[in-house]
Amino acid sequence: MQTEKLKRKTNLRPLVAVVLLALLLLNSCQSQSNGGGGDGARQLTLAVNSGVEGDALKQAARDYEAQTGVRVQIAEFPYSNLFEKELVDLNARTGAYDLIMLDDPWFPRFATQDVLTDLAPLYQRRNLKGPDNDFLAASIALCRHPYETGTLYALPYVGNSQLFFYRKDLFEKHALRPLESWDDVLAAARIIQEREGAGSPDGGRVYGYVMRAAQGNAVVADFMPIFWAFGAEMFDASGRPSVNSPEAVRALKFMLELGKYAPRGYASFNADEVSAHLLQGTAAMSINWPAWISAFSDPARSKVTGRMEFTTLPGAGGQAGRAEIGNWLIAIPRDSKNVEAAFDFLLWATSAEQLKRSALRGNPPTRRSVFLDAELLAKFPSYPAQLRSLETSKPRPRTPLWNEIENTFGIFLSKANSGELTPEEAMNQANDEILKILERSK
Amino acid sequence: MRRQRATGRWATVDRSLFARLIKYALLAVALLAALAPVYWMLTISLKTEVEQFAVPPRWFSFAPVLTHYRDAFVARSFGQYLLTSAFVAVVSTVCAMLPGTLAAYALARFRLPRKLDTRLALWILSTRMFPPIVTAVPLFLLMRDVRLLNTRAALVIVYTAFNLPFVVWMMRGFFQEIPRDLEEAALVDGDSRLGALRRVILPLVAPGLAATAVFCLIISWNEFLFALVLTQTDAAMTLPVGIAGRVTQYEIKWGVMSAAGVVAMLPILVFALAVQRYLVRGLSLGAVKG
Amino acid sequence: MGKGLKAKKWTAVFPPVYPFTRLPISPLPYLLVAPTVAVLVALSVYPLIYSVRVSLQTGTGARAVWTLSNFTRLASDRFFQDALAHTLVYAAVALTFEFLLGLSLALLLNERMRGRGLFRAALLVPMMLPPVVVGVVWRLMLNPNFGAINGTLKSFGFDTETLTWTASPTLALASVIAVDIWQWTPFVFLVLLAGLQAIPQEPYEAALIDGSSAWQTFLHVTLPLLRPAILIALLLRTMDLLRVFDQIFILTEGGPGFATETISLYIYRAAFRFSDFGYAAAMSFVLLLLTNIISLFYIRLLNRQENA
Fold first, then answer.
1. Could you give the residue ranges of the DSSP H alpha helices within A392-422?
2. What residues 200-219 of chain B have any CB closer than 8 A to a CB of chain C?
């Protein structure tokens, strides 16, 4: 009776229709996102970073499909999401992924949770001893747990490490000495800003130095080379935090000294602001990553085309500087159901031939032979500097708690740079908080 | 009497003129403060990069270009984010309106034993009072477990729950304003309860229904935190998450960001004008019938 | 004076429900309410219960361990305490300014004047903007090097060297608070204006006869009669201020250092950057408790008004 009446008049019917339609649409969205299921054929699933690194691997996967007939499915996630995504899936032991890309600071977290496949038995089964010597030692060391000496759980795919960017035209113009130490950097920054900066006779607006001092990853990455050059370490021999050591405080004081020649507000700078200053020609020196090099030869993006030089990092006290290394690794989750096929793909993707292709797609390689490839050298003149930087690079501390520690350290570094805390206060407080993180995890 | 009050205590002519001048000056300042920043974003979206960074800033004299809009919506995925935003907003609004209106009717018209009706209404309101981050953490974990992360369905479900209390409270107010005599007359005529609701009441609250739906659209369209937490892939991202993504990545494209901001803002302004009469009521969850 | 009077519109805040005794008890109202209750139980109540469980565990899945450590950690976490302090300062300062400015605007506009409709419509703009767009707008305005504010100040000859706004530890919190005031003063204004217009004429006429001054009339007539509107505006603003996330996420992401980190941001970071869901859940209960206490306080004030 009631339902009959409901049908008779129209008021609710369009609404119902819309809801049904919506549910239908929703349904279709879902089934799309689930993708096609396994058809029994050989098939691999990769989790990659959505960015230049992941794009290269994605294209390689297409080539692999064409060559071998193995289907390769790609699950793509933005950097901010990838770590969480992978950690959760690996811990849930779903075996959803056969290969995962990971940023090297995440590696200790995965390795200590014992969710990755030990690669040594896989090598043995193929009558191979292990990764060949063409891989850079600094890169392979990142793939072992414990660092350098332990079990091999991954292979390096993209070989980033920091470089020092400086304006060679300004250095020539003012006859500045080549940069060997951080003291040279400070002196050059002072001279450039006096002669080219605001209030200079030329009426220019060039700042001597620019850096990222926004809290989090940014300020830590830009500080570590100074920190290490001054002889400081995050942890002492017994594993306790030592960021308030006299060397560490001196390093931070030096950073603030450099900050006097940086654009105002640099305490909130991230990569975009730093690069904007460099590209606009309003800053003369900076630490930056190889991904930015190509922008400086593009007149549409850069006002200083051909005038930027890329070199290894300065040191201190006669010691050479050490860059922070930041590699992308590829690993096989322990619960992958296609470990052998995954390893075949991994060996193929990290071969010299494939790394060269990846290099042409914009990613620095992790093999010496690729760095020395004539075609690539002609295309990327900064490769010798990049290779030197990688070979002398230093990794971030190999701790599974690095994300938290870096975040905390970054907050205090940023506070010191913005003037909220003195260097001593900042480092003492940072030390206390890092200690807390370590103790909490016990 | 009335006239005296209108000019208040400042009876003399020059004093009232002076007061009025000050008043208009103050209002002009308020107006400028409210609109200038939005106008500035509009100009940035239309300027070339060189003009964006010009010192002193160019408020009026610049050569407008549409490249950022093309860049955002053709070359980049903002067109897709826009569609996702629209889809999620419309579907979640429909999903919330249907059960919400029925519940509102029941809570407006029936007295349940032990004040259950009032208690239910207050309980429904209280779910809306949770700070979103409080439910975002468990909802993320639950959505992850049922494999709905990075789908539009996740957002539709969450926004439906988010809008439901709002619909109940808005519509309950509108139903309560309808005189009961009309409905009772229909009942006497032999209509069923639902028949009376459909034939007599719903047409009378139609403006209220429309206003409530528009508010749901606005709320879903503007929502950021859940969208950020639950969707990170291009296919499922809404416009606000897309805009925020431009900020936190390596490089900030100010023009693209502003262009997307302008496009995100326009439908909302149109909607807001459409429901201006109910604005206070909507923004106060039906508490103030301005 | 004016005490016996009650603005009728305000009784609608928690309106009385009609007795409807003529019908026999039927399952209909329950059926009508059921879908809504079901959805809310599934998506608001159940997640909260689930969250309790999460907050009492560390680790995930099979490795989860039951513990109270997520709650004991709150007491020694200075970041949490700082974030809590920032949130309270943010809420208190923004609320005060939004109230005072909103009330002034409402009083200014509470009589017929030319262009009032237009003015009202224009003031709506900030409040309707998506919060993310508000963040974008103000990043453009406040950028120390090429932002419109410093650029304009500079062209008037001001020295803007130290005005780094969101990059300065001393100005950053004030800057994000100012943005909130910009966006939400119109809301307070609208609610209070609606309240003012609901006040009847009679008490004003009585005050005029008594010979009260304008200030006395405001204090003894306008304010008491406006009280419910004020309380509602403050209640809704307070709830929103305590949960603030979107604009700050875009403007400063909590920086520089930790200067603008609010509790919602800190919880977000713990959960979605460090995968520390247990601790995030524990912190979120503190936020929930705080919100509940403050809203109960307001609701009690509102009810007292109604029963007076």
1. 402-417
2. 218
- Cα B193-B199-B205 angle, rounded to 5 deg: 100
CA–CA separation, C94 vs A181, rounded Å? 48
Residue B153: its H or E element: helix B152-177
Q: How far is A58 from chain C (nearest CA, A)?
A: 25
**Cis geometry, peptide bond prior to residue C256 (ω within 30 degrees of 0):** yes
Number of H helices and number of E strands within chain B? 16, 0
Amino acid at C268: Y
Range B236-275 burial, b when 16+ CB lie within 10 A, else e = bbbbbbbbbbbbebeebbbbbbbbbbbbbbebbeebbeeb
* Cα gap B266→B260, rounded to integer Å: 10
Summarised one tens digit per residue, pLDDT across range B203-240 is 999 999 999 999 999 999 999 999 999 987 778 889 99
In this prediction the pTM is: 0.84
Tokens of A340: 């052998």
Interatomic CA distance for residues B134 and C43, integer angstroms: 12
Give yes or no for a contact between C250 and C135, defined as CB atoms under 8 angstroms apart: yes
Concatenating the DSSP letter of every residue in A211-264 gives ---STTHHHHHHHHHHHHHTT--SB-TTS-B-TTSHHHHHHHHHHHHHHTTS-T
As a whole number of angstroms, the distance between CA A418 and CA A112 comes to 36
What's the CA gap between C281 and C261, in Å, rounded?
Answer: 18
H/E element, A290: none
| Helix C78-108 and helix B13-46, axial crossing angle in degrees, nearest 10 | 130
Longest dimension (CA), chain A: 97
**What phi-psi label fits residue A95: left (phi over 0), alpha (psi between -120 and 50 degrees) or beta?**
left
A278 contact residues in C (CB cutoff 8 A):
none
Mean pLDDT by 10 residues, chain A (442 residues): 39 50 50 37 83 89 93 83 81 85 94 94 94 96 95 96 95 91 96 85 82 89 96 94 96 96 87 84 93 85 89 91 95 93 96 95 94 95 95 94 92 92 96 93 77
Q: What are phi and psi of C161, to 5 degrees?
A: -55, -40
Residues A196 and A177: beta-carbon distance below 8 Å: no
Distance from CA of C63 to the nearest CA of A (A): 9
Quick one: three-class SS letters along chain C? CCCCCCCHHHHHCCCCCCCCCCCCCCCHHHHHHHHHHHHHHHHHHHHHHHHHHHHCEECCHHHCEECCHHHHHHHHCHHHHHHHHHHHHHHHHHHHHHHHHHHHHHHHCCCCCCCHHHHHHHHHHHHHCCHHHHHHHHHHHHCCCCCHHHHHHHHCCCCCCCCCHHHCCCCHHHHHHHHHHHHHHHHHHHHHHHHHHCCCCHHHHHHHHHCCCHHHHHHHHHHHHHHHHHHHHHHHHHHHHHCCCHHHHHHCCCCCCCCCCCHHHHHHHHHHCCCCHHHHHHHHHHHHHHHHHHHHHHHHHHHHHHHC
Chain C residues touching B176 at Cβ < 8 A = 12, 15
- Asked whether B236 and A77 are in contact (CB, 8 A), the reply is no
Mean pLDDT for B73-100 is 93
Question: Which tokens belong to A139?
Answer: 């890169």
Q: Which of A439, A409, A417 minimizes the C-alpha distance to A244? A: A409
- Among chain A residues, the shortest Cα distance to C261 is held by A411
Q: With contact defined as beta carbons under 8 Å apart, do A249 and A304 qualify?
A: no
Q: How far apart are CA C242 and CA B73, in angstroms?
A: 35
B60 min Cα distance to partner chain A (Å): 24
CB-based burial of residue B85 (10 Å sphere; 0-12 exposed, 13-18 middle, 19+ buried)?
A: buried
- With contact defined as 3+ CB pairs under 8 Å, the chains touching B are A, C
ipTM of this predicted structure: 0.88
